[in-house]
Design goal:
alpha/beta; Aspartate Aminotransferase, domain 1; Aspartate Aminotransferase, domain 2; 5-stranded mixed β-sheet; 3-stranded antiparallel β-sheet; 16 strands; globular
């Protein structure tokens, strides 16, 4: 039986939510072009679309907001953020950005040229899109266990070192302007990366003279997984583990909307001074002055506090425990998910649940729509809508290995009863799975199409004779 421990906080303010009736939900999803991103928030009952910027800030963060220094240059708020950045990450330089994709944009502008390759365990959507927008080729080299849903490898986010070496030899180190790794590995189920693997990745990039950057969105969750699962780290604090992680890298990008538990914010960090100066020039063009980036002073303050709160081990035990509870409840009902659960989300295996829907008809999108129609739940497709791309050589569509739907849990927002409701809703869909049909595009942009694409349901399949 799944266990849900008490939250390490009490609720001080509430936001009303309302479940509109089925007929209203049908109208809402049609109006949105069958794209859950197009739904109005007021029409959503439980919003598991993302954990990015959707968490509840603490009383200390709200208090810090009142100290925000809105000076255009050299604000005290930047100084406070700088102190937190150096203590946690250890990089010599950083620039604040309005969110992670802005940091990825600047990093890609500084490094990536057309035809070059950027390896990682698995790039997530905005990272991949920013590389592609510069003519680069994002390449995923995660270990094979990542594509085996029921494989309970403790670090399924690890980058395969043999694949990485072979890849660099194949394309030439001169065609790899930088290498990356994502912690935790969002596209592969929110799975952590071990410190042993991070050391090996860093050594490999260093051997080939390739700069190494970490996508650090969920670094605190990853650090806590290391503490729980990796030999020799049970007595280390998450702060000590984080310092050891980032000491391996040349820099990092981060959307602070995840593990810094803020509604907006991010950064690009590095040790190279000349790179920092070039980053500042890019930042001024796109975001703002280097001491505020795309943020207000109050945002810098909330971020400085949130970076520490995200590393608090009582909070992290609750955070990972809440996700584990939802996963175990779904497994008790024989719902296929990615195992073991990650830190920020539970990933439904839509490809298995809707085995009758081919990848070309988007089983993940079908499941995300059914979740809304059945229970007013909004979740995110992570499958062929998000990641299927044409092969640069042949033009043939390459589908991802897994068709998933991510139930991303906002930080400090939902309770056990909300999660139990999610489980009941998924079970209702599973019980009538054969009646669910696929979808087709009616509009799709070239990059990041899942945000604005529109769909139409396909006609119900005729039984195979």
């Amino acid at each position: 039986m799944a266990n849900h421990d008490p939250e390490p906080f009490r609720i001080k303010m509430v936001e009303p939510i309302r479940l509109i009736d089925r007929s209203e939900r049908e109208i809402a999803i049609q109006r949105a072009g069958y794209n859950i991103f197009g739904l109005l928030a007021k029409d959503v009952f439980i919003d598991l679309l993302t954990d990015s910027g959707t968490g509840s800030m603490s009383q200390e963060q709200w208090a810090a907001i009142m100290r925000g220094d809105e000076s255009y240059a050299g604000a005290r708020s930047f100084e406070r953020l700088s102190e937190a950045m150096y203590e946690i990450f250890g990089f010599q330089y950083f620039v604040p950005t309005h969110q992670g994709r802005a940091a990825e944009n600047i990093l890609s502008a500084l490094y990536v040229k057309p035809g070059q390759y950027v390896p990682s365990n698995m790039h997530f959507d905005t990272t991949e899109a920013n590389i592609r927008a510069r003519g680069g080729r994002p390449t995923n080299l995660v270990i094979d266990a990542a594509s085996e849903p029921t494989n309970r490898h403790p670090f399924k986010g690890n980058l395969d070192i043999d694949k990485l070496c072979a890849f660099i030899e194949q394309v030439g180190a001169e065609n790899v302007p930088l290498g990356m790794i994502t912690i935790t590995n969002n596209a592969g189920g929110g799975q952590p990366v071990s410190l042993e693997n991070l050391r090996a990745v860093a050594a490999t990039y260093r051997r080939y003279g390739i700069p190494f950057f970490i996508d650090a969105c969920r670094f605190a969750e990853n650090a806590y997984f290391i503490k729980l699962r990796e030999t020799g780290y049970s007595d280390k604090s998450t702060l000590e583990i984080a310092r050891e992680i980032f000491a391996l890298a040349d820099g990092a990008t981060m959307s602070a909307k995840k593990d810094a538990i803020v509604n907006i914010g991010g950064f690009l960090a590095m040790n190279d001074q000349s790179l920092y100066q070039r980053a500042c020039n890019e930042l001024i063009l796109r975001e703002g002055f280097p001491t505020y980036g795309g943020l207000a002073g109050r945002d810098l303050e909330a971020m400085a506090v949130g970076l520490y709160e995200g590393l608090d081990e009582s909070y992290l035990a609750y955070r990972l425990g809440q996700t584990a509870y939802l996963a175990e409840r779904l497994l008790e009902e024989n719902i296929p998910i990615i195992e073991p659960p990650g830190g920020h989300a539970v990933y439904l295996d839509a490809g298995q649940l809707f085995a009758h829907i081919p990848q070309s008809e988007f089983p993940g999108q079908a499941l995300s729509i059914e979740l809304y129609l059945e229970g007013g739940i909004r979740a995110c497709e992570i499958g062929s809508v998000m990641f299927a791309t044409p092969d640069p050589q042949t033009g043939k569509i390459v589908h991802p290995k897994l068709e998933l739907v991510r139930l991303a849990i906002p930080r400090r927002v939902y309770t056990q009863s909300h999660l139990d409701y999610v489980v009941k809703t998924v079970c209702k869909i599973a019980n009538r799975r054969e009646s669910v049909r696929g979808y087709q595009f009616t509009y799709a942009p070239e990059l990041l199409r899942h945000f604005t694409a529109r769909f139409a349901p396909l006609e119900e399949r005729l039984p195979v004779p």
